[in-house]
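Worked example (supplementary).
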Amino acid sequence: MIFTHGLQMRAVLIQALRTFFIDRGYLEVDTPIRIPALAPEAYIEPLTSEGWFLQTSPELCMKRLLAAGIHRIFQLCKCFRKGERGDRHLPEFTMLEWYAAKSDYRDLMTDCEALLRHLATAMGKAGVLEWQGRRIDLGSEWERITVAEAFQRYAPCTVEEALVQDRFDELLVEYVEPHLGMATPTFLCDYPAALGALARLSPTDSAVAERFELYVAGLELANGFSELVDPMEQRARFLAEQEVIRLRGRAPGPLPEPFLVELVEMPSAAGIALGVDRLVMLFAGADNIDQVVAFTPEGL
Amino acid sequence: MYSASEFRKGLKVQIDGEPYVMTDFSFSKPGKGQALYRARLRNMITGNAFEKTFRSNDKLEKAALEERTMQYLYSQGDNYVFMDNANYEQLEISKEQLGDAINFLVDNMDVEVLQYNGRPIGVTLPNFVNLKVTQSDPWVKGDTSGSDSKPVTVETGYVVQVPPFIEEGDKLQIDTRTGAYVTRVKE
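After joint prediction of all chains, the assembly is encoded as:
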């Protein structure tokens, strides 16, 4: 069944997204979605195409553009992740990513606030999002809570214990996420260093990475971080990630060498990926991602 | 064996030698984290249920069930009567064991009756069934609520969300695995 309401909301929202970034001097780019190498990620499985890969994110190509001297860019594109299917997941989904040189993850949080307020105005929502019986106030100051604080407050153990027991994701989903983004949107900040493969470590606390996730009404919307720009450190982290992939019984793909070479030229920067389908869900009042896309894989 | 990525509502599996049906299933995956497969499993004999979170590498055994094609005849209180089309043998299955299937059963429908050690414990329905709408409120033209679905009741008493143009007397194709409306069918 095709939900025309979801599709109309989607079209208006995408127009408003573009206006937001173009008005702020960002250049819209569209990089290839079929690429020879990806950033290795332990828990994201790619789809292959004639020996290459369908992108799981446009991150590496966009960072190469930063390195080439284009300092404010955004992209709306399709990404592919094998086996991800649920009420909030599609194996092919629409991603918005934006990157800015000389900024860090705090600037991205400010961008997120401005972006959602802009979209709410464009959709006639006047600063309040209503979703699944919740009223989320976009106008007030948004909650910022560190991962360590959130585990302390909501989970049965500390974040360190959760990591040692390999239960971080499970406890996050079960105990922490249901509390996030309920009164205002929430920035869950400062992830354990091990969980930010492409993020810069905090200059004040090397145990955490300058990474955050944005939640609205318990729905995870975006993942942003201050970018790691040290090629040696980046290579070491990629190799470590490949080791995890091997331990999990998969064969890692080749390393993205041109990216690692050009990373030397990349200015300090911050970048973020936001799930557009979920954003439409929030504004359309949809509780299932199927309601905001033209076709699901099962419907093709 | 079923791997976690094959899990879905209605899957029949075996745990410690007992057959279970997956009555609820949800996929979640926190940003860059591990995929989690949360399932609710109901013991097909005792009716006891429990919830468990599985990960990508987890597997569950297929349930060792025998199936035979039988015709649904009628219900009597909480029991539903089925007949084997080959030898006319009849047997009863309780409402509880049928679960959601009662929403889609109409007289004379052929179904696969599941048996475990010779005991009937449930049925597998065709993936799609056609059911007649018995009650539907007319759609108000100019409805500005932005909603593009409305609830209707079908002949089994089941309530389903459908597009506004569906009217009383229409026949709907319904996916028995999800319970969702698929399309209107012409007879």
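Two points are worth noting when inspecting this output. The mean pLDDT of chain A is 95. The longest strand of chain A covers residues 92-101.
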